[in-house]
Design brief:
- It contains 7 helices and 5 strands, in the order H-E-H-H-H-E-H-E-H-E-E-H.
- With 196 residues, it is an alpha/beta fold.
- Strand 4 and strand 5 form a beta hairpin.
- Helix 3 crosses helix 7.
- The longest helix has 18 residues.
- The protein is globular, with a radius of gyration of 15 Å.
Length: 196
């Protein structure tokens, strides 16, 4: 059942942190690590990555066959839904840890710190593929102002590195279809089977 939050309730989650979604069992190999910019207030309220009702992340994964059952993240993910992602070898983290109403509230310094922290996380976890969802944040975090979407020429701490479109509803020129195509590409690069 979908939750609703008042503006005041959402504001109470400003600067909150959402834990990374990472494999917890040794048999769950981390194949694909998605990296958001930072948690939004709805994400912080539900403790679920990409949770805002207007976010197209999970619908795009479903449309692309990366997952086979819908996930209604707006209500907050169940442990079983989190386990589906973990068992598939999919993890989720963010460049910046603190929740804001808009990613534009983050400073360049926060994003650069996040890039360094992401590099350390990737060194530790060794995913096959890292997919950063957001070209502008990626450019700032890694000091690469001319970077473009797609596979990057240089790996990140040994992992194949991609930049994919951000699934936020604010990213109006992307659709569930276009996001699905991008997410299928990184899923295949990570060795995940995709249901056609």
């Amino acid at each position: 059942m979908r939750r609703t939050f008042s503006r005041a309730e959402l504001e109470s989650f400003r600067d909150a942190v959402v834990p990374d979604l990472l494999p917890t069992a040794p048999e769950h190999d981390l194949k694909l690590l998605f990296v958001g910019i930072n948690p939004g207030l709805w994400t912080a309220a539900t403790q679920t990555h990409f949770a805002h009702p207007g976010n197209r992340f999970y619908p795009a994964l479903l449309r692309g066959g990366v997952i086979t059952e819908p996930i209604d993240a707006a209500a907050g993910m169940t442990d079983a839904e989190r386990d589906v992602l973990r068992e598939r070898g999919i993890g989720i983290t963010n460049l910046a840890r603190r929740a804001t109403a808009k990613a534009s509230e983050l400073s360049p310094a926060e994003l650069k710190e996040g890039g360094a922290a992401l590099t350390a996380l990737v060194e530790r976890l060794r995913p096959r593929v890292v997919a950063v969802a957001g070209i502008t944040a990626y450019r700032t975090a890694f000091g690469l102002p001319k970077a473009v979407l797609g596979r990057q020429p240089t790996p990140l701490a040994g992992a194949e590195l991609w930049v994919v479109p951000n699934p936020s509803g604010l990213n109006a020129h992307e659709t569930v279809e276009s996001l699905a195509r991008a997410y299928v590409e990184v899923a295949r690069a990570a060795g995940l089977s995709v249901v056609e």
